Amino acid sequence: MEYNRKKTPSLNFLKKPLKFKDRTSFINYPNNNTQRYPYRDFFNESQSIANILNFKKKDLEQQRVAYFFGQNFDYVRSQWGIWAAGGTAVPLALSHPIHELQYTIENSKSSMILTNSENYSKMKEIGTNLNIPVIEIPKVGEYTIPKSQWSSMEDYKQYSIDSNRNALIIYTSGTTSKPKGVVTTHANIEAQIQTLVDYWKWTEKDHILEVLPLHHVHGVINVVSCALWSGAICEMMPKFDSKQVVDRLLESGISTDLDQPISLFMAVPTIYSKLIKYVNENITDPTERLAIENAFKRLRLMVSGSSALPESVRNEFQAISGQVLLERYGMTEIGMALSNPLKVNERIGGTVGFPLPGVQIKIQPELNNDDNQNNNQNNNDNNNNKEVGELLVKGPQVFKEYFEKRKATEEAFTDDGWFKTGDIVEKDLSTGRLKILGRSSVDIIKRGGFKISALEIEREILDMDPNIQECAVLGLPNDEYGQDIAAIIVYKKSKKQPMSFEEFKTNCKQRLAHYKVPNKLLILENEIPKNAMSKVNKKELLKLFS
């Protein structure tokens, strides 16, 4: 392969690595000592991959390039290589079966698949099925640009590229419909990154432990992209493992990473639940528990998002770690929109705080409310100081379109350009603080004229019995009342005898208005089924009651 380029697009977030040079960019866990990559190497490895993609063409001109890698350095150098080559990146999920991978590749009309030797045979099968080429990237250090030619990062010339070009297509979780390709531009991505870096005060002194799947914005933008923008270290675990996370935090700043210990951790509520479970079931010695608490305390920020954080999980995690989790709200189409403040004493559990800088929001009252609207629209007896409705969002971080779905894109926006999130929120008019009541399609249960938040009921059920590990509440069709309220519960393994249905209802009545009490209950032995991002698909859970 001949060397034919030494250029980079003139986009801020693609130029950022140029300034950090010999600082560590990425670490592949558990090979912390041998697989540490300076920003200089990251940038040139990315350019090397761009060279492969652009060998016969100066610019991919937004061609879609699907890529399939684990959570490691190969992933990030390939993603940035696609962007440096002028392509549109389409990340594939490691956890998806072949037919789902093929759907993403085919639906996005990807022109090629990028992967490494570890995953080549699997991708080759898909490439053959779809009749598109599969490219195996070289191993780290097997440069297509001679090392003598990339030793000086300042030599890279910048070429102009429109920041409104397509950059990334991430497919939705598919919890309410078939996955759609969310198209974000370079300008969208830069706005999303800049907002979080400023608000959460990222610096080059930060070191984040990355455990999230890299086919959703939580991992791609909030973790990896923000780290790169800031010149921070991003340490990538192949997958989340409670023991490995705890052990890694115990040593960081004590026996390793003395100059730059791990300072950030971002995850979904399920991960925090698993960390609690691991500590409670495996660590009984008070000295060891104190060491773990101190290990968590060394982090300057721990964030929870992607789904609602139960109050019980928030409180239990604080008890074992001393950390008050920062709750935030976002989605694939808009990046992050709402966040609790960075100051710990200004965070309030069960809420998602306030709009992030640059994010405009509006609350759209629900239309076609029934005669009981004034009494129960927000499920409270006294709602004079509350505003409730669907959250609408506008700003430079909002996505461009659903890929080749013009009608779906038009339906996602109001006539005056506000994106309709589909999430029902409650705003405290005295403070401006927001709370998520749930998805209008699956989390707002309509029973006997009442509109009821499933998330509120879940929080109360989890709080009423510390032996309950997980809970999901959903609406089941009912000809007379519109919907029944159904609860699914998983008990902790230490619980010997689950409560009877009558006992369950009695306990619920002590905490909930009568019309919010579940009238159906299902107890599962193992955890509630979830998707790759540890989210519950409530439409799938309906099948458990059939």
From TrEMBL:
Q: Which Gene3D superfamilies match?
A: 3.30.300.30, N-terminal domain of ligase-like
Q: Which CDD domains match?
A: MCS (cd05941)
Residue stretches of biased makeup (Low complexity) = 370-385
Q: Cite a single GO MF annotation.
A: CoA-ligase activity
GO annotation (BP), single: fatty acid biosynthetic process
Q: Where is this region: Disordered?
A: 366-387
In this protein, which residues make up the domain named AMP-dependent synthetase/ligase? 19-403
Enumerate the spans annotated as AMP-binding enzyme C-terminal domain.
Answer: 461-534
Matching entries from PANTHER family are given as: ACYL-COA SYNTHETASE, ACYL-COA SYNTHETASE FAMILY MEMBER 3
Family of this protein: Belongs to the ATP-dependent AMP-binding enzyme family.
What protein name applies here?
Acyl-CoA synthetase family member 3, mitochondrial
The organism encoding this protein is Dictyostelium discoideum
